[in-house]
């Protein structure tokens, strides 16, 4: 659908119709299923080799283009927690079809983080380009020697450039600095792209729940763990 901008008549705003959104979700799910079937036999080492080869292809095809400067910081500023919530809602809806109850879930977890924040046990990293949010990741202290990796999020246009790996590496380094014995994360089976990064970092699948209706979709939750 096209609508004329109220700010500039020369500009038209384009948006997917409900039918277009359904079609996009169907195509996206088919792609994720095909990708999972092609790679399910790979070991962690082979995942790493595959990702490295894909990075080489990306570099060869884009080395003529200048890349924007990405800044990753962990000095929490006013509005950072709101950005984490906002972009989970904005990016998960078109990619996975999650409804607003997912954004509510993220808001609750972010609120809990703010109320119980301890700089010695918790850390949130924000990745931005010229002040524009492009991703995040966090470590949240749980038991005395266990931390949870949360809110791993990255703008699609910056995937495949090593930014996701850099975020995860920073989180793991912090976990080791704080003497955590292990880190765990909760995810869902439809987040195949993130799974590559987790497995490459050494996380292993330790639990998988039965599918349930949640966030407007049929969701199957998984738990990954890494012994530090």
Our count of helices gives 6
Could you tell me the radius of gyration in angstroms?
19 Å
The major pleated sheet works out as:
7 strands, mixed
Overall mean confidence score, pLDDT: 89
The oligomerization state is single chain
List the helices and strands and how they pair.
Elements: E1 2-4, E2 12-14, H1 18-39, H2 44-62, E3 71-73, H3 80-96, H4 100-115, E4 123-129, E5 132-141, E6 146-154, H5 163-177, E7 182-188, H6 192-201, E8 204-208, E9 212-214, E10 217-219, E11 221-227
Parallel strand pairs: 6-7
Antiparallel strand pairs: 1-2, 3-4, 4-5, 5-6, 7-11, 8-11, 9-10
Helix pairs in contact: 3-4, 5-6
Characterise this structure.
- By secondary structure, the protein is an alpha+beta fold.
- Helices cover 43% and strands 26% of the residues.
- It has 6 helices and 11 strands.
- It has helices at residues 18-39, 44-62, 80-96, 100-115, 163-177, 192-201, and strands at residues 2-4, 12-14, 71-73, 123-129, 132-141, 146-154, 182-188, 204-208, 212-214, 217-219, 221-227.
- The strands form 3 sheets. The chain has a 7-stranded mixed beta sheet. Strands 1-2 form a two-stranded antiparallel sheet.
- α3 (80-96) packs antiparallel against α4 (100-115) and α5 (163-177) crosses α6 (192-201).
- The longest helix is centred in the first third of the chain and has 22 residues, at 18-39.
- The protein is globular.
- The N and C termini lie far apart (50 Å).
- The mean pLDDT is 89.
């Amino acid at each position: 659908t096209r609508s004329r901008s109220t700010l500039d008549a020369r500009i038209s705003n384009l948006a997917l119709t409900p039918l277009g959104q359904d079609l996009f979700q169907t195509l996206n799910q088919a792609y994720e299923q095909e990708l999972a079937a092609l790679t399910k036999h790979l070991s962690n080492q082979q995942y790493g080799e595959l990702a490295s080869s894909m990075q080489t292809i990306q570099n060869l095809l884009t080395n003529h283009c200048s890349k924007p400067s990405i800044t990753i910081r962990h000095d929490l500023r006013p509005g950072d927690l709101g950005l984490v919530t906002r972009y989970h809602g904005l990016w998960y809806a078109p990619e996975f079809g999650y409804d607003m109850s997912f954004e509510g879930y993220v808001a609750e977890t972010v609120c809990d983080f703010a109320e119980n924040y301890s700089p010695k046990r918790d850390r949130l990293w924000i990745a931005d380009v010229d002040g524009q949010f492009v991703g995040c990741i966090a470590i949240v202290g749980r038991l005395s020697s266990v931390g949870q990796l949360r809110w791993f999020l990255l703008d699609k246009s910056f995937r495949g450039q090593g930014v996701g790996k850099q975020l995860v590496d920073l989180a793991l380094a912090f976990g080791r600095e704080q003497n955590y014995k292990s880190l765990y994360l909760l995810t869902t089976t439809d987040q195949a792209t993130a799974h590559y990064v987790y497995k490459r970092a050494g996380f292993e699948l330790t639990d998988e729940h039965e599918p349930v209706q949640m966030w407007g979709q049929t969701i199957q939750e998984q738990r990954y763990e890494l012994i530090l």
